[in-house]
């Protein structure tokens, strides 16, 4: 039996602990002076001319374009993409909603500022008086009101017009018929 452990991992013949590698055998031959330096025989150093050129007659083994590892890697990448598609879509939808809500918030802030400004203006008595004169045609006692009707200036006091007395004498249905006749032309 040999002292080297076999492939099946049986115990070594001399019962020494084995690492699974063949034991080192050192040469006891003397090294000559015209032998190459020891650095050239290191495993990482290439020596030129060592490999024999391939002959054209020997068929070269081609590597397949798609290997099993490439298929497995592609499948894993596809599975990862499908797994992450839903959360990424939800994230992007959430970002769009946040931008929309931020725009609505800015609009509401602007509207609140406008309303605060309008409230401050309306608390000013001069503004309220000016609005009452323009919109409601209010006049203060002693002011003169001039209303232009059909291109003619009609003067009167603040509460009445000159034509108002004539229309008050007619019953309502006659006033309606007269207004229809005037509108008809």
Automatic annotation (TrEMBL):
UniProt entry keywords in alphabetical sequence: Membrane, Transmembrane, Transmembrane helix
Ranges of biased composition (kind: Basic residues): 44-53
InterPro entries xref list: FtsL/DivIC (IPR007060)
Origin: domain of life: Bacteria
Family annotation (Pfam families): DivIC (PF04977)
The keyword Transmembrane helix appears for this protein: yes
TM regions (residue ranges): 70-88
Region (Disordered): 1-63
Protein name listed in UniProt: Septum formation initiator family protein
Organism: Blastococcus deserti
């Amino acid at each position: 039996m040999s002292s080297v452990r076999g492939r099946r991992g049986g115990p070594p013949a001399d019962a020494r602990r084995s690492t699974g590698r063949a034991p080192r055998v050192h040469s006891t031959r003397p090294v000559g002076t015209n032998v190459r330096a020891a650095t050239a025989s290191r495993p990482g150093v290439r020596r030129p001319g060592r490999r024999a050129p391939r002959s054209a007659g020997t068929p070269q083994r081609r590597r397949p374009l798609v290997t099993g590892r490439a298929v497995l890697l592609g499948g894993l990448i596809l599975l990862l993409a499908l797994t992450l598609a839903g959360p990424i879509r939800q994230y992007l939808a959430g970002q769009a909603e946040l931008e929309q809500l931020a725009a609505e918030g800015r609009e509401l802030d602007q509207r609140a500022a406008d309303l605060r400004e309008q409230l401050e203006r309306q608390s000013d008595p001069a503004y309220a008086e000016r609005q009452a004169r323009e919109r409601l045609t209010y006049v203060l006692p002693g002011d003169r009101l001039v209303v232009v009707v059909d291109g003619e200036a009609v003067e009167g006091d603040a509460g009445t017009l000159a034509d108002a007395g004539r229309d008050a004498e007619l019953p309502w249905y006659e006033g309606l018929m007269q207004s229809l006749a005037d509108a008809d032309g």
